[in-house]
Amino acid sequence: MRAYPRSLARLIEELEKLPGVGPKTAQRLALHLLHASAEDAAALAEAIQDVKQSIRECPVCFNYTDADLCPVCSDPHRDEATLCVVGEARDLLAMERAGGLRGRYHVLGGLLSPMDGIGPESLRISELLARVREGKIREVVLATNPTVEGDATAMYLAAQLRPLGVRVTRIALGLPVGGDLDYADDVTIARALEGRTEM
Amino acid sequence: MGRVRLYRVSSVVVRQRDLGEADRVLVLYTRERGKLAAVAKGIRRPRSKLAGSLQLFSHASIQLAAGRSLEVVTQARARDTFYELRTDMVRFAHASYAAELLDALTDQGMVDTVLFDLLLSTLAALDSGGDASAVIRGFEVKLLTRLGYGPELDECVSCGAEVEGRGQRFSVTQGGVLCAKCGPLGSGAHLSPAGLQALRELRHMDATAVSGKRLSASAREELARLMRAFVDSHLDRPLRSSAFLAQESLDSA
């Protein structure tokens, strides 16, 4: 079955490799690109190439960067005493979007998961400990996901960090803002009650 | 389109994998239907009502809708999330191993309430701080025995003589103990009298009773090594969590 010219079939094939893109969507995207202006198509191709060539990991926090240091690490107005630990760079982006943290970050590059063969040496834990040992950091905020893996990773890190004399904190668990107590699940409500704060 | 078929089961999450934007495929071991895979839609969103009850290791009452290839979770109510498992690396890694081993040795649709209860009691024993090494050795022996792979611990696998507990060895390839006479002739590994005694006891103890038992440091190490080789001989590929336990030296912790 060769309904499409070769180049179009190739584009569809490549698009299908993207996460969440099935054959139907790939075909739709390919046809859209076919009808798009030459500039738009070139801009997309260039953007893809550019990101592959220029983006690498920040050597300090392992966030994405196109310079020597990532935008957060190179910002002199950031609080050097607070370090927020996240699993993936996308979690860092979420924290930044929320905008509540004035400190810096450390991206672990995953979470501990025995079933997936991810142990402490697969993550940037020694790099984290080395940063804390430099002495400027006073508080480490553990902002890993509140999943089994995220919590286990946080517990593991807390045990490693405490002997270094820093304050170790964990982000709170509870009800989502704007949520309805009546609709929340039991586990979340129980955790929210446990983490209640004085008013 | 006909009516959607809904049914309720009691389940434990033994494996999970992210799917698409916010979904997750869960491998569930259920009391009523054995192992099955189900999609939990939107579970990675903060406001998901399923998320709290369907974490890894969680025991929950759930409602499923029969799907074309995968079932779809429509409701979930946590019975026990075994929350303590995430507070400690030793317990977390051992629970991961139990779940991965059960998953590796069972097929979908094979219903076995004994195995379901064994998994549940093992997770509960680990959660409540029982001796992880003893609990897991007990889990292995009982799981393998139930599936017909259990180690022979009473009679010599070579000559059939009763093994009394002195000078015996353990043959992984033959699947059990060798008596003092046959042992030196075969390829068996060393098995101390205390180790043999511990394995024999673990066969019949339930996980709650096992969790109160403490193995000596030498017995732990010996049985961890021996059971690892024995379990591996029944698997197509080694388990990741088993390698994790060995690498982090948690298996004899």
Protein architecture, described:
The complex is a heterodimer of chains A (199) and B (253). Chain A is an alpha/beta fold and 199 residues long. Chain A is globular. Chain A is 42% helix and 11% strand. Chain A has a four-stranded parallel beta sheet. Chain A has a domain at 78-172: Dna Topoisomerase Vi A Subunit, Chain: A, domain 2 (3-Layer(aba) Sandwich), CATH 3.40.1360. Chain B has two domains: 6-81, Beta Barrel (OB fold (Dihydrolipoamide Acetyltransferase, E2P)); 84-245, Recombination protein O, C-terminal domain (de novo design (two linked rop proteins), Up-down Bundle). Chain B has helices spanning 89-105, 113-127, 132-146, 193-204, 207-211, 217-232, 240-247, and strands at residues 6-19, 23-30, 34-40, 59-65, 71-80, 169-171, 176-178, 189-190. In chain B, the strands form two sheets. A five-stranded mixed β-barrel of chain B has the order 1-2-3-5-4. Chain B has a three-stranded antiparallel beta sheet with strand order 7-6-8, with no helix packed on it. The A-B interface holds A 19-20, 112-117, 119-120, 147-149, 151-152, 155-156, 176, 179, 183-188 and B 15, 20-21, 46-47, 49-53, 55-57, 76-78, 81, 85-89, 92-93, 96-97, 99-100, 240-241, 243-245, 247-248.
Keywords:
heterodimer; A: about 200 residues; alpha/beta; Dna Topoisomerase Vi A Subunit, Chain: A, domain 2; four-stranded parallel β-sheet; two-stranded antiparallel sheet; 7 helices; B: about 250 residues; alpha+beta; OB fold (Dihydrolipoamide Acetyltransferase, E2P); de novo design (two linked rop proteins); 2 domains; five-stranded mixed barrel; three-stranded antiparallel β-sheet; about 20% strand
